[in-house]
Amino acid sequence: MFSIIQAAGWPIWPLILCSIVALALVIERFSSLRTVRVVPQRLLDEVISVTSKSLPAPEVVNKLSANSVLGSVLASGLRAVIADPRITEDGLRIAFETAGRAAVHRLERYLNTLGTIASAAPLLGLFGTVVGMIEIFGSQAPATTAGVGGNPEQLAHGISIALYNTAFGLVVAIPSLMFYRYFRGRVDEYTIDLEQASERIMPHLLRFTSRQS
């Protein structure tokens, strides 16, 4: 591996840095976008069951908020009703929408960086190719016109720089783009789940406001 890095020359180092960052982001997103940390399957039913007769205590709401992304959205609705027992449906919907936008922003964390790496890696590989071409042209003796002669070691080094950087740029870009699209799809699915959960619990919470109106 070290010999390949040596053959690829100094333009390979930005690509290596991009590959390290991309790998770290992919691992982090896989951990953060697990279903159990975003939309636990039975959480909504449990919240509806617990609040079937009365609203929970603030400590319970805080615990729910720390449970998952869905828990934070549901907790925002509970806090809105607790803070204002006469809240209207529009006011409650605004509370859910505000919490939902913040939740989606959390889910999209680092995705723009991963997409940028996917777009920049081929360009960095192309930059390495240009550097390699400069090395190739520089290896030719001034008197030669047929592209032969000159410094064969410099010629070989220039070819190595051009080919290795092009290949490594694609190796970094293709998986980064695939994971970016995959995580983007997961976020879209979770966004729909959060919206449906908010719509489902909203009539349940409005029952408490109507009792105290």
TrEMBL record:
Membrane topology (UniProt): Multi-pass membrane protein
Main location: membrane
Keyword terms: Cell membrane, Membrane, Protein transport, Transmembrane, Transmembrane helix, Transport
Pfam family, one: MotA_ExbB
Segments crossing the lipid bilayer: 12-30, 110-134, 154-180
Gene Ontology cellular component annotations, sorted alphabetically: plasma membrane
GO BP: protein import
InterPro entries, A to Z: ExbB/TolQ_transport, MotA_ExbB_proton_chnl
Residue ranges annotated for the MotA/TolQ/ExbB proton channel domain, each copy included: 66-195
Subcellular location(s) per record: Cell membrane; Membrane
PANTHER family: MOTA_TOLQ_EXBB PROTON CHANNEL DOMAIN-CONTAINING PROTEIN, PROTEIN TOLQ
Family: Belongs to the exbB/tolQ family.
Name the record gives this protein: Putative biopolymer transport exbB-like transmembrane protein
